[in-house]
Write a structure and sequence with these properties.
alpha+beta; 5-stranded antiparallel beta sheet; 10 helices; 5 strands; about 50% helix; about 20% strand
Length: about 200
């Protein structure tokens, strides 16, 4: 498999980019979110997934391993192919998508073009468990849990029976590292959000 590709951007379209690599123009399918952040002539490196079919070879590119891992989880679900998976990644930011899956938010998922209620339910059923068992670094959370207070709030929430993934989402919202509240106040604030 082609694991990554580096080259100069020749052209950018809504759902793919053409990279100049060794005299060739290689088409790499990407999410619309990612495409909107790219600039022509830039040199970039993408982690990739090569989809092999009888009649085509399609290369899909991602800004990092986290995005590719979620894409691979999506295409492992019956009825979701690479095109729909990229469409899902295009419809919402990565962090928000993970949060929607973990919280079982069908309404948010069905607002993504191409995702109906049945598909949304299937995504939640099949990925909620996988995402909650995955470590925070594998999920690609860009969190700052270096502070002792953040770790203390996290361990308190996990001790109360909440999954680490959901606890992290709440901690990101209350941001203990930048707060002057006591740990008790922060835990109460987190529990209030969890019970909304």
């Amino acid at each position: 498999m082609i694991d990554q590709i580096s080259g100069k951007i020749i052209s950018i379209n809504d759902n793919y980019v053409v990279l100049g690599v060794g005299g060739l123009g290689i088409k790499v399918n990407i999410s619309a979110n990612f495409a909107s952040k790219l600039v022509n002539e830039d040199l970039i490196t993408l982690v990739t997934y090569l989809n092999v079919r009888e009649d085509a070879l399609d290369l899909y590119g991602f800004k990092n391993d986290s995005e590719r891992n979620l894409f691979l989880m999506l295409i492992s679900i019956s009825g979701i192919g690479p095109k729909l998976a990229v469409s899902i990644l295009s419809g919402v930011e990565l962090e928000e998508l993970k949060s929607n899956i973990l919280s079982g938010d069908i309404k948010s998922l069905t607002s993504i073009p191409g995702v109906g209620a049945k598909t949304a339910k299937r995504i939640i059923i099949e990925l909620k468990d996988k995402l909650s068992k995955t470590t925070t670094t594998e999920l690609g959370f860009e969190d700052n849990f270096g502070s002792k207070i953040s770790k203390d709030v996290l361990s308190a929430l996990v001790g109360l029976g909440y999954s680490e993934s959901i606890a992290i989402e709440v901690i990101k919202r209350i941001n203990p590292a930048k707060s002057d509240k006591s740990i008790e106040s922060l835990i109460k604030e987190a529990l209030k959000i969890l019970n909304e």
